[in-house]
Amino acid sequence: xxxxxxxxxxxxxxxxxxxxxxxxxxxxxxxxxxxxxxxxxxxxxxxxxxxxxxxxxxxxxxxxxxxxxxxxxxxxxxxxxxxxxxxxxxxxxxxxxxxxxxxxxxxxxxxxxxxxxxxxxxxxxxxxxxxxxxxxxxxxxxxxxxxxxxxxxxxxxxxxxxxx
Length: 164
Hints:
Blueprint: H1 2-36, E1 42-44, E2 46-50, E3 53-54, E4 60-65, E5 68-74, E6 80-81, E7 89-91, E8 102-105, E9 108-112, H2 115-119, E10 126-127, E11 132-134, H3 139-163
Parallel strand pairs: 1-10, 2-11
Antiparallel strand pairs: 1-7, 2-3, 2-6, 4-5, 4-8, 8-9, 9-11
Keywords: Membrane, Transmembrane, Transmembrane helix
Transmembrane segments: 139-158
């Protein structure tokens, strides 16, 4: 009987040791998993202008970090993005990189008006006034206009020159 009690005590102590070791390994595993979990995206919405005018429907907004796309959306209502859940700009980046985000409108680098609000944000925050301003030159239209002016100038010069 004494031998049986002693065996039971040893078995209970061994089971407790195994249980404590298992609990400790689960805690370490959970801590490692928590460290590798991605952070929530930064949620952005606001107004968007191109050359001082509201951006048209279909305008593409892309956010880049170190050459990688970390967020994108398309304007569904003229001059506004993020007004609906379907077109909110979700930016997946670490908070320490929020100040290095680059914004592009239809592929052209643009400016975020409220940069400090983004820099000071936390993952999962919604920034409702993340206004974007883009300046796009209309080089093809300007080139065509300049070409027309040059042709007209030459035509006028030839016409008046032949009168002399």
